[in-house]
Amino acid sequence: MAISLDDAKGRMDKSIAALEGEFKTIRTGRANAAMFEKVRVEYYGQEVPLNQAATISVPEARLVIIQPWDPSTLGDIERSLQKAEVSVNPSNDGKVIRIAIPPLTEERRKEIVKVAHNSAEQARVSVRNIRRDLNDQTKADKKEGLGEDEAKRLDGEVQKITDASIETIDKLLETKESEILEI
Known about the structure:
four-stranded antiparallel sheet, alpha+beta, two-stranded antiparallel ribbon
C-alpha cells in the first residue's frame, strides 16, 4: 500500500490543531473564555462543559462573567470552578459569577511557560511518530516492489512535511511564550 502524503499532512495538521486548542486553555494573565473549556459542570444530572450550561463573557481584560442559563445551577457552577485547575477565585452575586483574573507573578509565568513547552514537545513527538509510521510503511512498500528512488523521494517528502509541521509548532510556542511573559 503506497503512503499518502496528503494523509500524513492531515494527521500532522491535527496534531498542530490539538496544540492550538491546548494553548487556548493556558492562562496568560488576561481574561479569556477559553480558559474554562475544560471545566465540567453537573447540570441536570449530567456532566457537561461549562459553556453548555452558561454564557461566558469577557467584558474587560481582567474580568470574566459567567451567567448560567438556569439560575438554580449557580452553586454547581461555582463549585466546579473552585475544583477545576484554573486557579481563579469565583464570586457569586446570586445572578452571575464574576471572576477577577489576577496578574501573574514572575514565578507563575515561568511555570506556565514550562507547561506550554511540554505541550509543544508532545505535539512534536506526535508529528515524529507520524513520520516514523510513514517511513515504516515505505520500507514495507519497498519489500513489495516499490523502487529505491521512489522510496527515497517519499522519505524526503515526508521529512519536508515533518520539518514544516515542527516549524509551525515552534512558532506557536514562541507566540504563546511571549503572550505569557508579557506584563
